[in-house]
Amino acid sequence: MTELISSDLSAEKLSKLDRFLAIKAQLAELEEELENLKPEIYDLVTDFSGGIGYGGFEFQARERHTYTYSDGVRAAEEDLKKAKKYEEQEGLAALKTSKGYVTLLRKSV
Question: Domain map of the chain by residue range?
Answer without folding.
Answer: 9-90
